[in-house]
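note to self: dont lose this again. the chain is below, predicted strucutre after it. 132 aa total, dont forget to put it in the shared folder this time
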Amino acid sequence: MSHQASATFEITSWDEKPYEQLEGGGKLSRATVAQTYHGDLEGDARTEYLMAYRADGTADFVGLQRLAGRVGQRSGSLVLQVSGTFDGSTAQATWVVVPGAGTGELSGLRGKGGFAAPHGPKGTATLDYDLE
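---
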C-alpha cells in the first residue's frame, strides 16, 4: 500500500566551503547541512551536498541525506539521494530512498519525493513511500 508523507523543515546549520573556483565566476562547493523535520516526516537530518554554482548565483546540487526519526507511525532512519537546482531564490529537489539503507521500522522502506525551499531556513517536503 502506498503512503504519502508531507512535512515542513528548518535548516539548523549550514557549513559550506568552496573547493574550486571556475572560469567565468562560478565555483564548486561542499556543504554539510543539518535540519529538523516536522509533520509526517519527523526528526533530525544531516546532508552532505556538492554544488556547482554559475556566475549568476544559480546552482545545481546533489547530496545524500540521513533522516533519523519517524515516517508516519514508524521509527528508524533512512537515507535519501538528492538532486536539485537553485534558481537564485528557491531550491527545488527530487529525492529517492536509497535501497537497503533504512534501519529499525524503516528497514525496507522504498519511495521518492522532494522538497522546495525559498532562500532562507524553512521549506516543505513530500515523500511517497511503500514499506515491505
